[in-house]
Structure formats: C-alpha cells, structure tokens
Specification:
Elements: E1 4-7, E2 12-18, E3 24-31, H1 35-59, E4 70-72, H2 73-76, E5 81-82, E6 106-108, H3 109-123, E7 127-133, H4 138-149, H5 157-160, E8 186-193, H6 246-261, E9 264-267, E10 270-276
Parallel strand pairs: 5-7
Antiparallel strand pairs: 1-2, 2-3, 4-6, 7-8, 8-10, 9-10
Length: about 290
C-alpha cells in the first residue's frame, strides 16, 4: 500500500504503510524537511553563487593585480618626472578618477623601455619627460562617461574646455569610450627643463585659467611652452596647429621627433598623446587598479 506522512510534536514526521487490515505501520522517521528537499535547495544556492561569481569575473576581468608585461615606469626610468593628473583633482572632471589609487605611471614593459631611450637622449640637452598619464583603467574611462552625462557638472569647464559644450567632448574626439591608454602602451607627456622648477600648486577651488591662453595667463605648469595646457580640449591643442607661435610649434615638433624616433606615434588632436607602435596588447583593454 502507499505510504503517508504524519507530523508529530517534536518536529519529526513518520512514514506509515497500511497493512491489509488498514492499520498504520511505522516504517521510518526523518526531519520535516526531507534530505531531497535540502539537496535541491543547496544546488539552487550553489547555482546562484556560481552565476554571481561568473558575472563579477565578466565585469571586472583584470582588476586584481598588474598583469605580467607591465611595469612601474619609475622603476625603469628613475629620473622621469610625474604629474599624474587623474590621481588628483586637477583634471577636467575636478576630482580623483576611479582606478587611480596611487600617483604612479604604469606601462607595458616594451613601451617603458622605449621611453627610457627617449629620456636618455633628452637628458643630454638638460630636458626631461614629464608624464601626466600612462595606463588608464577601463573603470576610469567609465568614470569619464558617467561624468559626461551630467550636464550640470561643469566646474572645470573654464580651464579645460572653455569654448565647447561638454556634450561635444566625445563627438569631437577629445574623450573616447575605449581608450588606447587602457591597452597599456599610450602615454600623455610633455618636456620640462632641468634643473627642475617647482610648478604652481593646484588648490581645489582656486581661480581657473583658460588652457588655450598664452603661457603667462594659464596654469603655471613647469613644462616648456607647448602653446596650450595639458588636456586642453581646444583646436590649438592639435599638434600641427598653425595658430600658435613659432617657438611653441618648435617645442611640439621637438617632442614629436624624439618620440617617433623611438617608436611612438602621436594623436593629431593632442600634442601630449603618444602610443607605442608595437604595443603588445593591441586588442586588450585592461581594468586593474593602479595601486
């Protein structure tokens, strides 16, 4: 005969069979939550956990540690000067950017070794490279995208994009949703004279100066005059602009010549932006945090 379950007060239930006379005969006892139910519930929980872990791996593929093939540029070129703007508040967003937990410049080893040759040549002329940015985590690029959607946040407009609307920054090619920097072989830099002079300290809330103004009217960077400031989203920042003075053009082309000599190519809309031609990860956009 078929069995049935009868609950009792102590939290257990007993399986009963009916004999031929209709009397209940106890077969065994077990918890009110049978083992089979517990196993199914555990499997469901395990499935949910695995799906969650898979999702986290997909959205943060490279955040854990700096991968093999990357180096800290200061370890390769101790004499290089750093001014990592996205670690600070002195940038077009006006606050430290996601993914920059330390004021370091990381690059692929090959790009850093090529940059070492550039620096060695410049030192003979009492000049040094100064880096504003190197490897840029994808999370930082995503930060730029979120910022661009907030039409009301224009507190840094006067210095960095004084003549265009914030909504035009992607359209005009000044910001990209996928940046060469995230591949680890792009670098933003300038030239500084030696011995090195201290630059004007940036204090949050200080009076901003338009980046395309003459050198005496913009932020007192300690670099040689390149015609505009760094991250100046303006046509005067185009490397070959003929609207800047002759000395400024010569400075840009001096930088361009030495960078190209050792394997870098310039982005035409930014005199400061260079990418190593033989980059080892041309299709990979990394997202590990700089720390």
């Amino acid at each position: 005969m078929s069995g049935r379950k009868v609950p009792v007060k102590n939290g257990y239930a007993y399986d009963f069979d009916l004999d031929v006379s209709g009397n209940a005969v106890r077969r065994n006892s077990h918890s009110q939550k049978p083992t089979g139910v517990r196993i199914i519930k555990s499997l469901r929980q395990l499935k949910t956990l695995l799906i969650t872990l898979l999702f986290l791996c997909l959205i943060t593929p490279c955040r854990a540690e700096m991968p093999k093939g990357f180096v800290d540029v200061k370890d390769v070129i101790p004499s290089i000067v750093l001014d990592i703007r996205y670690y600070s508040s002195h940038n077009f967003v006006g606050r430290p950017i996601a993914g920059y937990s330390a004021p370091k410049c990381l690059l692929t080893r090959n790009a850093a070794l090529a940059l070492k040759k550039v620096q060695a040549e410049l030192l003979r002329f009492s000049l040094s490279l100064k880096i504003y940015d190197g490897y840029r985590p994808q999370q930082a690029v995503n930060h730029f995208i979120r910022w661009a959607k907030d039409a009301n946040d224009i507190k840094m407009k006067k210095e960095f994009y004084p003549t265009i609307y914030k909504s035009e920054l992607f359209q005009k090619g000044y910001i990209a949703k996928k940046s060469a920097h995230s591949r680890g072989s792009a670098v933003d830099l300038t030239l500084v004279p030696l011995p090195l002079k201290l630059q004007e300290p940036y204090v949050k809330g200080m009076e901003l100066c338009e980046c395309h103004k003459p050198v005496e009217k913009r932020f007192k960077d300690n670099s040689i005059d390149m015609g505009t400031g760094f991250d100046c989203f303006h046509p005067l920042s185009w490397t070959a602009s003929d609207r800047i003075g002759r000395p400024q053009r010569q400075n840009r082309f001096m930088l361009k010549a030495v960078m190209e000599k050792y394997g870098f190519r310039n982005y035409i809309k930014e005199w400061w932006h260079y990418t190593f031609r033989n980059e080892p990860f041309p299709e990979t956009y990394f997202d590990f945090t700089i720390k």
